[in-house]
């Protein structure tokens, strides 16, 4: 049975469906969303996902009358480039995708971001359906309409808002997800507990382990997914295009993106970098007397329980400070930090002294 969460927007509202073996019902969901049975579809996926799930999805959709062509791309951050977008556009041309056609993203956040951006820019915008297969994408990247690619100067500097027509979350696809990827996704879930869901935070604290799917009972995992999706959906409904409130979703991301950029996206997974960014943000909040050491300790215990990194990497301070200035969240030259103040509460600060950042990074990189 599928649980559904409706993400209501002024325009482009959509359904988020969650349930085991959901991918076997994708065709019925598309028909329910008024997509025509003879629709032309481009399925964008990656090799690791296509083998266990892609062929099944293609055959299932074809059995429902849809015209489906698949494109397999590499999913690493190093592949999140305009050259890959060009490949998707070329496949869209070969498939003769029209204004009423559809792109389906089957994979993790990188596949979803690129397929979404390609959909946003093909014929000035066609429909995208997100079918995330990683924990990170299920609770974050697939929801909210953010799409894009990286620029050599920084992560996700090129992109657009393009809401999906449907998000389908099938927890059974996590069985083939490497443990490291699962742990990386757990970082975003911990983030939701800190910024907006005390109930989720308490639920995570009661779990014996958060480091692998095998250690979390199925019902508990579904509850974690539901809490997380509801938190993300509520924030997006209140602020679709990150005008104000939605910026709190960047908790841990300001310095997390620095870690990814300065290590060329090949040392830390996104969630691992976000975990480091959350620890750093928590320390800054403590230094500004916004957040207690007890709360910071609780956050670090959850991050440790999820098997995520705790020690800031040794990066050149000048490079860190320079990279911060290139972040897309900078306004009038000031870096914005999302800082925690209590359970489910954060503030946005753009006046964190450079000296404080330098002192902090010198300290935590040696812990």
From TrEMBL:
Pathway: Metabolic intermediate biosynthesis; chorismate biosynthesis; chorismate from D-erythrose 4-phosphate and phosphoenolpyruvate: step 2/7. The keyword ATP-binding does not apply. InterPro entries: Dehydroquinate_synthase, DHQ_synth_AroB, DHQ_synth_fam, DHQS/DOIS_N, DHQS_C. Keywords: Amino-acid biosynthesis, Aromatic amino acid biosynthesis, Cobalt, Cytoplasm, Lyase, Metal-binding, NAD, Nucleotide-binding, Plastid, Zinc. It is found in: Cytoplasm. GO terms for cellular component: cytoplasm. This is 3-dehydroquinate synthase. It comes from Paulinella micropora. The lineage of its organism: Eukaryota, Sar, Rhizaria, Cercozoa, Imbricatea.
């Amino acid at each position: 049975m599928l649980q559904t969460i409706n993400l209501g927007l002024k325009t482009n509202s959509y359904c988020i469906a969650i349930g085991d073996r959901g991918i076997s019902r994708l065709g019925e969901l598309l028909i329910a969303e008024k997509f025509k049975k003879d629709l032309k579809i481009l399925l964008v996926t990656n090799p690791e996902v296509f083998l266990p799930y892609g062929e099944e999805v293609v055959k299932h959709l074809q059995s429902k009358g849809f015209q489906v062509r698949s494109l397999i791309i590499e999913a690493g951050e190093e592949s999140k480039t305009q050259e890959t977008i060009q490949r998707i556009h070329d496949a869209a041309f070969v498939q003769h995708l029209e204004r009423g056609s559809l792109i389906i993203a089957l994979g993790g956040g990188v596949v979803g971001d690129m397929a979404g951006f390609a959909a946003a820019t093909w014929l000035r915008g066609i429909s995208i359906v997100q079918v995330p297969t990683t924990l990170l994408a299920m609770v974050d990247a697939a929801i909210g309409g953010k799409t894009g690619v990286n620029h050599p100067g920084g992560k996700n500097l090129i992109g657009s808002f393009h809401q999906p027509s449907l998000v389908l979350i099938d927890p059974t696809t996590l069985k083939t997800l490497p443990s490291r990827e699962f742990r990386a996704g757990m970082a975003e879930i911990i983030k939701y507990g800190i910024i907006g869901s005390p109930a989720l935070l308490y639920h995570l604290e009661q779990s014996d382990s958060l480091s692998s799917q095998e250690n979390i009972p199925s019902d508990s995992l579904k509850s974690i997914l539901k809490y997380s999706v509801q938190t993300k959906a509520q924030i997006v409904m209140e602020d679709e295009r990150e005008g104000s409130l939605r910026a709190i979703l960047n908790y841990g991301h300001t310095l997390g993106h620095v870690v990814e950029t300065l290590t060329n996206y090949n040392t830390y997974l996104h969630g691992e970098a976000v975990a480091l960014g959350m620890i750093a943000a928590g320390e800054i909040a403590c230094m500004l007397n916004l957040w207690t050491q007890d709360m910071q300790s609780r956050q670090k215990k959850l991050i440790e329980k999820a098997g995520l990194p705790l020690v800031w990497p040794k990066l050149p301070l000048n490079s860190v400070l320079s990279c911060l200035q290139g972040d897309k969240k900078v306004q009038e030259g000031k870096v914005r930090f999302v800082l925690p103040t209590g359970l489910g509460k954060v503030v946005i600060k753009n006046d964190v002294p450079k000296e404080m950042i330098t002192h902090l990074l010198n300290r935590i990189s040696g812990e």
